[in-house]
Write a structure and sequence with these properties.
The complex is a heterodimer of chains A (393) and B (290). Chain A is of the alpha+beta class and 393 residues long. Helix content of chain A is 38%, strand content 26%. In chain A, the strands form 5 sheets. In chain A, strands 1, 8, 9, 10, 11, 12 and 13 form a 7-stranded antiparallel β-sheet that branches. In chain A, strands 2-7-3-4 form a 4-stranded antiparallel β-sheet, covered by helices on one side. A 4-stranded parallel β-sheet of chain A has the order 15-17-18-19, sandwiched between helices. The radius of gyration of chain A is 25 Å and the shape is elongated. The two termini of chain B are 19 Å apart. Classes of the chains: A alpha+beta (393), B alpha/beta (290).
Chain lengths: 393, 290
């Protein structure tokens, strides 16, 4: 959880960068980051430490609270760097396997600040947030001392004016000796935020070193997936960031799919409808295995692709389709589902709820197939839950 | 009676020669909507669905006196079309396109708002005033004329709600799909204000979902202004786990905001009953309609 989320931002991004990737983006934008290298082999960690001296070894995972979980270690010698990297790489950290470790020059820290930029959907503008209380407990600060976080809404037409940045820094009550430098970092971060179509850009902590330099010591960077068509450079980060293989496949195919932890696959036409289907299952004590939106239309090809994705999840013991016939009529959708399932080897029961235009005709078509029709979402939910129980789910 | 659109609405369709634009402009014309012009750069002088096509919105509005735009232009270019429509002088822009970069919408919304142009969407089904006009992509068959105002972030849930309304013998004054994105032109509170002043609307059905705080803002508005009409609500995504985006870009619980519990509580405190299912919500509306 980031502070930006708490401040009314939204953590929507499908593309989350690792710290080392975020720092590359920051560095390209002219923001100072510690010298370092990302490694996948403990020997390389030793080699980097050989070159840089005292280093910090940091496990690269998309989860907060790394430090407390042993994911950040200070290494005084190359041998220690090797040892710490070996203890992280390939091992789980808070449920995520660590594939990369960032080995960075250790910093002499004089002060730790917080800087974040996100979209404030309530104000329809980007918002910059700055606090003198950087470090791991920033969420706590937001909850208990919100006055310690200074905020600035940025006009998209003009960007931040210098006086606004000076005022923001003054309100955050940072060390006055670095205010100019901090204001410059905020502008640079805003520029990167804009040019990379970020939904979240966060530096926490933004440190002031003992010799007065301002350095991004840690970073988070989430990219708006709607903008990936014009962010080809960032797309290369996608595959290494994807945690779940089915979600990764869905992202490749452009399917709105989210994996959940139940055993009933859910497919529907429309995000709201699918979400409501999950709710109905939940209310009937069923557990959905996924969210999957067919989108408009429902050609056999689309059904086959989406059903294929849903069935990739080995926990799925049954599938529930929830279809509302609108412009696309239920009988057309029924044909699509019958065509698709006819060519697939499906071992689990499928219940199909149809309503709206030509729903009765659609249900009629399902007769004589293995597909089980239902008239209401409630009826469909109960049917699939019963069937899944029968399957030992 | 209705809000925003009626028999006098004159529509220009942006992207009328594209697949979606061509199909849905045909459907709108079939419904009786006055579609007076289309815009596709480079295709000026041609005719689509019997409607003259222009190279620019300015030309289209000048030649046809259009007062409303509907945008079907693909996501990378949609923001530009919305601004072009607003600059051409229409007062209402309906943006159907989904997948528009959020920062584009930030620019659009901040640009058009001072001009007094109302935007519906993006990523929405548009709006319909049954018996008057349809400026959107919803299946017209499920709508009947009546006195229920409907506002929704979700397309399919709106259709289903209105289908239930029709099946229970009632009808809709205007149904507004406000869209599922985080940055939208018209939010619940704005739509509630419109329905407040519409004599043809006796009750409002509000279909919300997880993410953001527009439902809470609407609830506070209803409470603080002693909203003069009954409102009933539905929240989808009540079982959704935090941190997972549920299809709509705006539908995500993050950092403790956007939870269904907070939304249900806000509505209940404002005297707005929240139904567990769409059927239940429509039933609640029926009881209040008398």
């Amino acid at each position: 959880m980031s502070l930006c989320c708490q401040a009314g931002g939204w953590g929507r991004a499908e593309l989350k960068l690792y710290e080392f990737q975020a720092k590359r983006v920051f560095a390209q934008g002219g923001i100072s980051v510690p010298q370092g290298e990302v490694v996948q082999d403990p020997e390389d960690a030793a080699r980097v430490a050989e070159r840089l001296g005292r280093v910090v070894v940091k496990a690269q995972v998309h989860v907060g609270g790394r430090g407390k979980a042993g994911g950040i270690k200070l290494a005084n010698t190359p041998a220690e760097a090797r040892q710490y990297a070996a203890g992280m790489l390939g091992r789980p950290l808070k449920g995520f396997t660590v594939n990369y470790a960032l080995v960075e020059e250790a910093q002499n820290i004089a002060a730790e600040y917080y800087l974040g930029i996100t979209i404030d959907r309530n104000a329809d503008k980007a918002i910059a947030m700055l606090s003198s209380m950087g470090g791991v407990d920033i969420e706590e600060v937001a909850a208990t001392q919100p006055e310690k976080i200074a905020k600035l809404h940025i006009d998209p037409a003009w960007g931040p004016w210098d006086f606004q940045l000076r005022d923001l820094v003054a309100r955050a009550a940072l060390d006055p000796r670095v205010s100019r430098e901090i204001a410059a970092v905020i502008r640079k971060l805003y520029n990167v935020f804009l040019t990379s179509d970020a939904s979240l850009a966060e530096i926490n902590p933004l440190i002031v070193t003992a010799d007065g330099k301002v350095v991004a010591a840690d970073g988070k960077f989430d990219v708006d997936d709607n903008a990936l068509f014009r962010q080809k450079e960032l797309l290369k980060y996608r595959e290494v960031s994807e945690a779940d293989p089915i979600e990764a496949e869905a992202a490749k195919l452009g399917v709105a799919y989210v994996r959940l932890d139940g055993n009933i696959g859910v497919i529907g036409n429309g995000a709201g409808l699918v979400m409501t289907t999950l709710d109905i299952l939940s209310r009937n004590c069923g557990k959905a295995a996924n969210f999957c939106d067919l989108g408009g239309g429902a050609k056999a090809e689309t059904v086959r692709q989406d059903l294929g994705l849903v069935l990739m999840n080995p926990n799925v013991r049954g599938v529930l389709f929830n279809i509302f016939g609108g412009i696309v009529r239920c009988d057309e959708v029924a044909k699509g589902i019958i065509d698709a399932t006819g060519t697939m080897d499906i071992k689990v029961p499928i219940v199909i709820r149809m309503s709206g235009t030509k729903a009765a005709e659609g249900r009629e078509l399902l007769k004589g197939t293995n597909l089980i029709p239902a008239a209401t979402a409630q009826e469909a939910a109960q049917k699939i839950i019963e069937l899944v129980k029968g399957w030992g789910g | 009676m209705s809000v925003l659109i009626n028999k006098d609405t004159r529509v220009v369709v942006h992207g009328i020669t594209g697949r979606e634009g061509a199909f849905h402009s045909g459907k709108m014309i079939e419904y009786g909507t006055k579609v007076v012009a289309g815009v596709t750069p480079g295709k000026g002088g041609t005719v689509q669905n019997g409607v003259p096509v222009f190279d620019s919105a300015a030309e289209a509005v000048k030649a046809t006196d259009a007062n409303t735009s509907i945008v079907f232009v693909p996501a990378p270019f949609a923001a530009d079309s919305v601004v072009e429509a607003a600059d051409a002088g229409v007062k209402l822009v309906v943006c159907i396109t989904d997948g528009i970069p959020t920062l584009d919408m930030v620019r659009v919304v901040n640009y058009i708002r001072p001009k007094g142009v109302r935007l519906i969407g993006p990523n929405c089904p548009g709006l319909i005033s049954p018996g008057e006009a349809k400026v959107g992509i919803m299946p017209a068959e499920v709508y009947r004329e009546g006195s229920i105002g409907v506002i929704s972030r979700s397309g399919t849930l709106t259709y289903e709600t209105c289908d239930h309304i029709t099946n229970m013998g009632m009808g809709v004054s205007t149904c507004i799909g406000i869209g599922g994105d985080p940055i939208i032109g018209t939010r619940f509170i704005d739509a509630l204000k419109l329905f407040r002043d519409d004599d043809g609307t006796k009750i409002v059905v509000l279909i919300g979902e997880i993410g953001g705080s527009d439902e809470e803002t609407a609830a506070a508005y209803i409470k603080e202004t002693s909203y003069p009409k009954p409102v009933v609500a539905f929240i989808s995504g009540r079982s959704a786990p935090a941190g997972k985006r549920m299809g709509h870009a705006g539908a995500i619980i993050s950092g403790g905001t956007g939870t269904p519990q907070a939304k249900v509580k806000a509505f209940e405190e404002a005297g707005v009953p929240v139904g567990n299912t769409l059927e239940e919500v429509v039933q609640l509306a029926k009881e209040r309609l008398g």
